[in-house]
Amino acid sequence: MRQGRIGSPRRRLTALLGLAAVVAIAAGLRILIGRSWDSQGWRIEFAWPAAEVAGFRLGAVAVASTVGAALGISGLLLQTLLRNPLASPFVLGLSSGATLGLAAAMLAASTVGVGVGVGSGLGSVVPAFVGALATLAVVAVAGRRREGLDPLTLVLAGVVISSLCGALLMLVNHLLPPGTRGDLVAWTMGRIDEQPDPLLLGGTAAAVVAAFALGVAGADRLDVALLGEDEARSIGVPLGALRWAMLLGAGLLAACAVAIAGPIAFVGLVAPHLGRILAGAGHRHLVPASALAGAGLLLVADLARQPIDLGAGRLPIGVLTAIVGGPVFLVLLRRGRLEGWS
Amino acid sequence: MKRDAVVVEHASFAPSRRAEVVLEDVDAAATAGRITVVVGANAAGKTTLLRSLAGLLPVPTGRVTIEIDGRPWTPWSLPVRRRAAHLAVLPQRVRLAAGFGVEESVAMGRHALPRRPERVAEAIERWALGDLRERSVDTLSVGQQQRVGLARTMAQHEAGGVLVLDEPFAPLDLRETARAVGVLRDAAAAGATVIASVHDLGLASRFGDDVWLLESGRLIASGAAGEVLVPERLEAIFGSDAIALAGLDLRGVRSSG
């Protein structure tokens, strides 16, 4: 978009290849780089790991790239649906809903006296997923109009439901036994599991592949969806069904991502913008670019946090993405990269 | 040449929850090969009428029909492809997709139709957008964006179809207005049914073959431009000060119409 010009098709393709290369390099480094403990303290080593270790690191790579791609596509679909550059998977309140779902499950478990298994592994994934889906349902119903989904109402409903979930979360926190509050706080910092549940990860990966394929196949329609409602209809794209598809697709992807990795901030917001800067606004290139940018961002963040230990273990991934992602977004904003969206 | 025609019968809009502009028992017909201009004060119902013609609003009472190959259709329920091929629309506020180039934006008009790149190239040339082909639309002026919107609408328009344009000239300078008038006249000459709202009464009187005059949701006059746009009627609607301010010489229109 230099001097107001759009990139040539060749440049867009080059950008996609570049993004894919970044993903591959980050994944490779994540597998090769490790830490070991000796008399001098923690040490970073760079070597081909033993098979078992390689398996763990491969697990982390699979989680980071799948979750990152899910967040990237989800954020893109929401920005297109809501015609709003500030949209991210979490404007709809999905992360608050997921956190609330988990907190409620922990409270229920501690009240009944079960406790075991809730808050870790599948015990955190299921309640978080249910919480995110419940929020999505409430937002979708609230954003429904006679004429179809209304983007502005969706955003406002998301904001309201986010803060409502926040309030309920405080209530649940207040009621939780003090010993378990830490688990909840740790969960909100995000995590890249080195031993992911294969079924869960496989399901998310399948959703990502499906969204990717549908997004590329329907790229022209997504382009037209950026126009006004009247224009889209006149040109031959009634937005009704398309908006529902975008909302449900984006919501499901975000719910999967949040259930696996916790509420990881800014990836879903920044990835589509990076994709747009590099590969242009057309969805044929932008859908792959957003997926690759999301995967790349999360892989790089996961790689970067490996050596960062402030005395309490490796830095949680969500902390890093928020600390880095916020300023990055601010720079994009200041450099006018978001212009033209109104 | 296949020609589509548009007929409005007793179309009414009751105020809805959202207090839309009311239309009351509007009866009119637009003829293929002619330019019909819709005139009226602000909030007279021009946009509501045009949107119902364009199939962007269902008509609760009465009927709006567009005749395609001898068969009447309601614009609101036209199947997607048929609609795209027979009904090209320019909304009041043209909205383009941020980050897209001018050529890409014009080509979006062909989305539901056979691609035919020559139609896109022709529209770009006709609207003098050649130098801006690769420019991102959000770096354009409002007038340039309007031209892109018009070019997109014309790239979609198939000969003999219906063109509905809400204030097509509003953001254009004189030269571009003249260009737009030329393009639309050519389309009409090639058999199109052109229906456009125009604020500028002088322009309306020179551009339109026929005029629909709306006041407070009612069609108070329709027919040949010279018969509808008479001073007494316009003064009654807009006030004599406004007619004097616009420096309108409507006698000239009357004699030529």
Which tags fit this structure?
heterodimer, A: 342 residues, mainly alpha, 4 strands, B: 257 residues, 6-stranded mixed β-sheet, 11 helices, 10 strands, 37% helix
Protein architecture, described:
The complex is a heterodimer of chains A (342) and B (257). Chain A has 342 residues and is mainly alpha-helical. Chain A contains 13 helices and 4 strands. Chain A has helices at residues 9-32, 51-82, 94-112, 122-142, 151-175, 178-188, 198-217, 219-225, 229-235, 239-261, 267-279, 283-305, 317-334; strands spanning 33-38, 41-46, 144-145, 148-149. In chain A, the strands form 2 sheets. Chain A has a two-stranded antiparallel sheet with strand order 1-2. Chain A has a two-stranded antiparallel ribbon with strand order 3-4. In chain A, strand 1 (33-38) and strand 2 form a beta hairpin. In chain A, helix 3 packs parallel to helix 5 (151-175) and helix 4 crosses helix 5. The radius of gyration of chain A is 20 Å and the shape is globular. In chain A, 49% of the residues are buried. In chain B, 37% of the residues lie in helices and 24% in strands. Chain B is α/β, with parallel strands linked by helices and 257 residues long. At the A-B interface, helix 8 and helix 9 of A face helix 2 and strand 6 of B.
